[in-house]
Amino acid sequence: MRINSLRLQLLAWVVLPLAGLATINLWTSQRNALATADLVTDRMLVGSARAIAERVAMADGALDATIPPAAIEMFDTGDRDSVYYRVETAGGRLLTGYPDLPKAPQHENIGASYRGHPLRLLTLGHPVIGAGEDSPISVTVGVTLAGHDAMVKRLWLSAFAQQLALVAIAGVFVLLGLHRGLAPLIRLRDAVRSADRNELGAIEVSGAQSEIRPLIDALNAYRERVRAQMAAQRRFIANAAHQLRTPLALLSTQASYALRENAADQRREALVALQASSGRLARLAEQLLTLSRAEPGSRRPRADRIDLTEAALHVLETQMPAAINRKIDLGLDEDGPVPVIGDGTMLREMIVNLVDNAVRYSRAGGSVTVTLSAIDGEAILTVIDDGPGIPSDEREHVLERFYRIAGSAEEGSGLGLAIVREVAETAGGRVTLGDGAAGGLAVEVRLPLALP
Ligand SMILES: Nc1ncnc2c1ncn2[C@@H]1O[C@H](COP(=O)(O)OP(=O)(O)O)[C@@H](O)[C@H]1O
Ligand SMILES: [Mg+2]
After folding, report:
1. What global pTM score does this model have?
2. Is 159 contained in some domain?
3. Which atom of ligand 1 is nearest to the CA of 416?
4. Å from CA of 416 to ligand 1 middle
5. What is the reported pLDDT for 299?
6. Which residues of the chain fall below pLDDT 70?
7. CB of 444 within 8 A of CB of 351?
C-alpha cells in the first residue's frame, strides 16, 4: 500500500517508530514493576518473620511462640491477602502455625503454592537464648499475591499511560508542524489557482521556506517565459493580419476596377495587375505558413539527410527567370555534395528567401553568387551580391519578423530573413550577415554537417 499524503507519511514515520520504542519501553517497565513488587513483598516478609521470631522466648522452661498481631497486619493493604505462618524448632517440632506450610530454603524467597493459591514464601532462622538444641528456631511466612499483583498493575499502568501520552503528543506536534510547514505550499497552490489566467505575473508567497523557494522561482521563470511567448504570438498575429489586410484591400480595388472597365485591353491590364497582387498574397500566406512550421515545437521536426548543393541547384533553377529579368548573373560555386540533417522543404525555403532577396535588392545587371562548402564538420552556405547591402546598425533587426528597411521600393513582408534564421536555428546552425567583397550583402549560414 502506498501512502500519498505527506501528512500521513510523516505521521507514520514519526509515530510508528515512536510507538515501537514505547512498546519496548513498556515491556521493560513491566519487568521493573514486577521486580519492585517482589522486592517490597520480600521486605515485608522479612519484617514479619523477624517480628514473629523475636517474640519467641523461653517461658517456664518451654518455648513460647506468640504471634504479634502487627506481624500479620502489615500485609493488610486492602487486597484481601491471606498470610500463613509456621514456627518450628531446629528439630522440626511445630511451635505454632500451619503444619503443612512448605518451607523456603534459608534466606531465599520463593514462589510456592499453598491451598491452591500462589504464595510468596520466606523462611528465617533465629537463635533463642536458653532453648538448647531447639535453637535456632525457623519462622516461615507466606503471603498470597493479590497485593503484589495489584502493585505491579499500578506501577505498570502509570508507565503505560505516560508512554501513550508521549506518542499521542508527538503525533499532535507532527500534525501541527506539518500544518505550519505546508502552509506556504498551500498558499502557493491557491496563488497559482486564483491568478488571473492572462496575467501570468510573478507569484509571491510570504514565509516560503528555502526548500520551496526554488520551486516558486522556477514557476515564476516559467510564467515569464509563457508570458513572453504569448506576447510574441499576439504581436505575430496582429502583424500578420495587418500584412494580409493591405494586399487584400488592393485586390478588392483592382477587382472593382476591372469590373468597371469596359474596354477589353484595359480590363485585361487590370486583371493582370490583380493576378500579380494575388500571387504576392499567396506568397505572403506561404511565408507565414513556413514561419509557423519552422517554429520550435510546432510540429515533429523532420530529420532527413539533405544535400544542400542539390537543394541550391534546384532553387537557382526556379529563381533564374527573375534573375534574367534583372540581367543578374546568378551563379553557383560548389565542389560536391554538402549533406546536412534537417527538413528538406524548410531548408529549400531558406535558400529561396536568400536568393530571392539577393536578386531583388541588389542592383540590376549585378551578380549573385551562391557558394557551398564543407569545412571542419560545418556546412557553409553563402549568398553574396554586389548591391547596396544592409547598414550594420540594421543587420540585427532585419532578422526579426516583419522588419523591413524603411524606403524599400521592393514589395515584401519582412518575413524572409526571419524564416532563414528560424530554419537555420532549428537545424542547429546560425546565420550571420556581413559585407560582400564588392560592397553588397553576404549572408552566411553555418549548419552542422551530417556524418558520412
Ligand atoms: N541582399 C540584400 N541586399 C540589400 N538589402 C537586403 C537584402 N536582403 C534583405 N535586405 C533588406 O532586409 C529587409 C528584410 O528582408 P526580408 O526579411 O527578406 O523581408 P522582405 O524581403 O519581405 O522585405 C528587406 O526589406 C531589405 O530591405
Ligand atoms: Mg525577402
Report:
1. 0.63
2. no
3. 18
4. 7
5. 65
6. 1-2, 106-109, 195-198, 297-300
7. no
